[in-house]
Specification:
single chain, Serine Threonine Protein Phosphatase 5, Tetratricopeptide repeat, 2 domains, mainly alpha
């Protein structure tokens, strides 16, 4: 993946999006990935550029900024499981459980197998959110 990114740079072809997703998904080179994502957004300004920025802001611990970017990514209502998964994880981390559950449900209803790892993470996170809600009701 990095080699393709290097070739793209040499050939003056923009390949920041996939490389930034790759780094974020594998929790490596977080700062570099965020810089790549920002360049992608400067160049493209589409929902996936906003999504890659949101995901990389999230991975860099910039959760409020990630919320802003993911809301831009979702503004057209595109039915893409990855977009909703990213939104769900961002909202979950911000403590917005209802929004997190909504987006994780939507991701899994669009495609329950959208990613080899993240679909299981979405399912597990959804169960945790629902269990915490049940526990909270039981403590009242």
């Amino acid at each position: 993946m990095e080699y393709i990114g290097q070739l793209s740079a040499l050939n003056k072809v923009l390949y920041n999006r996939e490389l930034a997703y790759f780094y974020a998904d594998h929790d490596i080179k977080r700062q570099q990935a965020l810089e790549l994502a920002q360049r992608e957004l400067d160049y493209r300004r589409d929902i996936y550029a906003y999504d890659v920025v949101a995901w990389n802001l999230f991975k860099n611990g910039k959760f409020e900024e990630a919320r802003e970017a993911v809301s831009q990514a979702l503004q057209l209502g595109t039915q893409d499981a990855k977009l909703h998964y990213h939104a769900g994880m961002i909202y979950q981390h911000l403590g917005e459980k209802e929004k997190a559950k909504e987006h994780l449900h939507r991701a899994l209803s669009i495609n329950p197998y959208f990613h080899i790892f993240f679909s299981d993470t979405a399912k597990r996170t959804l169960v945790e959110l629902e269990n915490s809600e049940v526990a909270a009701r039981g403590n009242r």
